[in-house]
């Protein structure tokens, strides 16, 4: 097989970046000589995370529309024109065999220019409610890979393939010792352990309710792994408490999943994909601030299947303790939810997507 040249474009959040990196690694597993270039948006998270993963990335000056009246929206047409011009130059110089868009406005100019040159373009949509950029690009796309059913509401049905989301690791919790994972966080064996993750930036309401109830949780003999997100600074008094690990970001997330007996998480698409693989008692707290309320749509697909619990952000304080107690109980309801949650797992999604794309560009 002749080595192929790939551009992977998109970003803005970890929910777009990590599947993009997972796809790049899957491409390398199938074609060790493949050349991969990332294209993102200047100043966004991908400009840091992609190089950390070992890949080259080019930034476009593109920006998103501000949802309220903002002077930056007046600069948007200029940024779009500049981004289209730069995307055209990138495609011309790199000469990719295929281009993959993973969502986020950075992928718009790049895939638009690639499709105009007749280059196969593929989309990967993580959420159950499609993003604006992917909907815009779908008519020209060769194939569209999705994680949820009924996506014909947004995309041409003949192009849709349900594969699940590419996850950022190739493992299951069975490969990791719970004892070692607890030790990694300075926690003890034999105590029920809760992991709370509000996303890489943090979730103010989730952090607030944790602070309100943390003393009670620790008093019950529970242990807590608390990722606050980089936008939140907890009170210093929590830093040295026994039974508590607290930090802005968890680099070794697989260790956190292995240590936890139960998990409370935002309902981003990638979090759901990873937690389905883990198959532990889980409650989702959808962010009410994302476009089209897509986190609620993501979570409800599992909740309606009996695979997880859901807490509305507005009900966090009133339902927090009872939800934690239920998640950390040993009841049969928890076991049934875990079994159903694992049925949603698609651990080989990245390799499946890459195999299909290679078949299309031979």
Tell me the layout of helices and strands.
Elements: E1 5-9, H1 14-30, E2 35-41, H2 46-52, E3 56-60, H3 76-94, E4 98-101, H4 107-116, E5 121-125, H5 132-137, E6 143-146, E7 160-162, H6 178-184, E8 193-197, H7 204-219, E9 223-227, E10 244-247, H8 253-259, E11 262-265, H9 269-278, E12 282-284, H10 294-303, E13 309-310, H11 316-327, H12 332-342, H13 349-361
Parallel strand pairs: 1-2, 1-4, 2-3, 4-5, 5-6, 6-7, 8-9, 8-11, 9-10, 11-12, 12-13
Description:
This protein has 362 residues and is α/β, with parallel strands linked by helices. The protein folds into 2 domains: 177 residues, Glycogen Phosphorylase B (Rossmann fold), CATH 3.40.50; 170 residues, Rossmann fold (3-Layer(aba) Sandwich). Helix content is 40%, strand content 15%. The chain has 13 helices and 13 strands. The strands form 2 sheets. Strands 3-2-1-4-5-6-7 form a 7-stranded parallel beta sheet, sandwiched between helices. A 6-stranded parallel beta sheet has the order 10-9-8-11-12-13, sandwiched between helices. Helix 2 links the parallel strand 2 and strand 3. Helix 1 packs across helix 13 and helix 7 crosses helix 11. The longest helix has 19 residues. The radius of gyration is 21 Å and the shape is elongated. The chain starts with a strand and ends with a helix. The model has no long low-confidence stretch (mean pLDDT 90).
């Amino acid at each position: 097989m002749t080595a192929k040249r790939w551009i992977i474009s998109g970003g803005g959040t970890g929910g777009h970046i990590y599947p993009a990196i997972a796809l790049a690694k899957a491409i390398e597993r199938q074609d060790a000589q493949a050349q991969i270039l990332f294209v993102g948006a200047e100043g966004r998270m991908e400009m840091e995370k992609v190089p950390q993963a070992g890949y080259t990335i080019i930034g476009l000056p593109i920006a998103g529309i501000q949802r309220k009246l903002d002077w930056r929206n007046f600069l948007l047409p200029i940024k779009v024109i500049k981004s289209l011009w730069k995307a055209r130059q990138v495609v011309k110089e790199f000469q990719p065999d295929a281009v993959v868009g993973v969502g986020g406005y950075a992928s718009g100019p790049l895939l638009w220019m690639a499709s105009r040159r007749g280059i196969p373009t593929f989309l990967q949509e993580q959420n159950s409610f499609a993003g604006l950029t992917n909907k815009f690009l779908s008519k020209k796309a060769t194939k569209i890979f999705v994680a949820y059913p009924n996506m014909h509401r947004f995309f041409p049905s003949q192009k849709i393939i349900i594969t699940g989301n590419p996850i950022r690791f190739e493992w299951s919790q069975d490969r990791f010792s719970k004892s070692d994972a607890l030790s990694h966080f300075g926690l003890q064996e034999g105590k029920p352990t809760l992991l709370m993750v509000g996303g890489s930036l943090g979730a103010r309401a989730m952090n607030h309710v944790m602070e309100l109830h943390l003393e009670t949780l620790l008093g019950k003999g529970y242990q807590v792994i608390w990722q606050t997100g980089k936008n939140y600074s907890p009170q210093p008094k929590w830093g040295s408490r026994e039974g508590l690990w607290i930090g802005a970001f968890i680099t070794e997330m697989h260790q956190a999943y292995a240590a936890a007996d139960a998990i409370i998480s935002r309902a981003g698409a990638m979090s759901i994909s990873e937690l389905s693989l883990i198959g532990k008692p889980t409650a989702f707290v959808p962010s009410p601030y994302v476009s089209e309320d897509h986190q609620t749509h993501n979570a409800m697909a599992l909740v309606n299947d009996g695979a997880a619990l859901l807490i509305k952000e507005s009900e966090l304080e009133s339902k927090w303790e009872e939800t934690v107690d239920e998640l950390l109980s040993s009841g049969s309801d928890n076991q049934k939810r875990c079994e159903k949650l694992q049925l949603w797992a698609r651990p080989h999604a990245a390799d499946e997507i890459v195999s299909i794309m290679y078949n299309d560009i031979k």
